[in-house]
Amino acid sequence: MSRNYLGVKASALVAMRSQFAVIGPGLWLLQILTTTLFQMWFFVLVSDFADDPTATPSYVALGNAVASLTYAAVYGVCMSAGAEKHMGTMSGIMSTPTRVFYVFLGKGVYQSLIGMFTVTMSLLFSVLFFGVDLSAAEPLTLALVLLVTCFSMVGFGMIIGSIGVYVRSSMVLGSIVLYLGLLLCGVNFPISYLPDWLEPASLVFPLTYGVDAVRDVATGAGLMDVSGYLVVMLLIGMAFYVLAYVLFSYFEKLALKHGSLDVF
Amino acid sequence: MNENEIVISVKDLVKVYPAATHLLGDGGKEKLAVDRISFDIHRGEIFGMLGPNGAGKTTTIKMLSTLLIPTSGTATVLGMDPSKDSMKLRSRINLVSGGERGLYFRLTGRQNLDFFSDMYQVPREKKKKRVQDLLDLVGLTDSADIRVENYSRGMKQRLHLARGLVNEPEVLFLDEPTLGLDPEIARETRALIKKLSREGMTIMLTTHYMFEADELCDRLAIISNGVIKGIGSPYSMKDAVRNDTIIEVEAGEITQSQKEQMKALPGVSAVSLESLEGRMMARMVVMDAATLIPTVASLLEGQRIISIKVDQPTLEDAYLKMVSDK
Amino acid sequence: MINLRAVKAALKQQATHFFVDPQWVIPSIIAPFIFTTVTLFLFSHTGGDLLLYAILGGGVLGMWGNTIQSSSWSIGYDRMNGTLEAIMVTPTSLSSVVLGRCLWNSFIGLLNALAVFLVAQFAFGIDVTLRDPAGFIIALVLTLISLSVLGMVFGAFYVVTRASSALFQMLEFPVYVLSGAVYSLAILPEWTRPFSYVIPATWGAEALKIATFTGYDSLGIGYWGALAILAFTTVIFLALSLRLFTYLEEKAKVSGTLVRY
Question: N- to C-terminal Cα distance for chain B?
Answer without folding.
Answer: 42
